[in-house]
Specification:
By secondary structure, the chain is of the alpha+beta class. It is built from four helices and five strands; from the N terminus they run ββααββααβ. Strands 3-2-1-4-5 form a five-stranded antiparallel beta sheet. β1 and β2 form a beta hairpin. α3 packs antiparallel against α4. The longest helix is centred in the middle third of the chain and has 29 residues.
Length: 160
Amino acid sequence: MNNIEEGTVTKVAGDKAWVLVKQSTMCEGCHSKSTCHTLGGDKKIEAESYNTAGAQTGDRVLLKINTKSLLRAAFLFYFFPAMALLGGGIAGMKLGPQYKIDPELASFLSAITAFLVSFIVVLLIGKTLKSNRDRMPEVVKILSTESNSPDQKSGDECEA
C-alpha cells in the first residue's frame, strides 16, 4: 500500500531530494502525530527521497511513501527499544537476587543495558534500511517548478 503526498523540494544531492511535507497530510492516520513534531517544534517533516522525477530545489512534487515500510520502521524505532527496556528491567528484577545484587539496582542496570543494546541494534538496522531503495520515499511527479511560480515577475515589467 502506498501513500501519495505533496511537498516542496528543499535540497537536491545526486539521486536524492529532500522534500518538505506537511505533517497533517503525511501523518493523518498515525496515533503519534501530536507528539512526533515535539523535537522540531514544527508541523512539517523533511523526507529524504529518491528523486526519480528529476526535481530541482523549490519544485512542488508528488511523493510516494510505502506505508508498510513506514509502519515497520515505526515498530523498529519505537516498540523494540521500549520492549527491550521493559524486558531488561524484569530480567534484572528476577536475576538480581540470584547474584546477591539488590533487585532494584539489578533491574535498573539491566534495563539500561538492554535499552542501549537495542539502540545500537536499531542504528545498525536503520543504516541498512536507509540504503534499501524500496523503503525510502520516492519523488514520482513534478507538479510545478520554481521557474513557473506565479510570484515571480518577468523582466519586461517596468516600475513607475
